[in-house]
Amino acid sequence: MITKSEVEHIAKLARIKISEEEKELYTKQLVKILDYVGELKEVNTQDIAPTHHIIGVVNSGRQDKVKKFKGSEKILSQAPKREGNFWKVKAVLE
Which pTM does this prediction carry? Predict the structure, then answer.
């Protein structure tokens, strides 16, 4: 059971102002939520295997393969300033 003073404390921690009406409303709503969670504790899950995904998704990624990019010189030639194989830009952090 959650009390009105606990709702006030939560609001203080969250740094939000709530009216007296909101304190009453949130207290009732949180009590309902916690009661429902309490009902879930009664569900028998003894023979249920833990799952991380209910539909059995398999990783469909591909292997990374290094390939030589043939257009890099063309791209690098468009840089206002260049240093070797890199664009030279102003420092972002000083």
Answer: 0.48
Is the distance from CB of 58 to CB of 28 less than 8 angstroms?
no
Mapped onto helix, strand or coil, the DSSP state of residue 1 is coil
HSE-CB for 64 with a 13 A CA cutoff: 1
Token digits of residue 16: 């939000």
Distances (CA, A) of 76 to 68, 82, 90, 92: 15, 7, 16, 20
Whole-angstrom distance, CA of residue 29 vs CA of residue 26: 5
Find, among 68, 85, 67, the residue nearest to 76 by Cα. 85
**CA–CA gap between residue 81 and residue 91 (Å, rounded):** 13
pLDDT digits (tens, 9 = 90+) for 44-65: 988 888 877 777 777 778 888 8
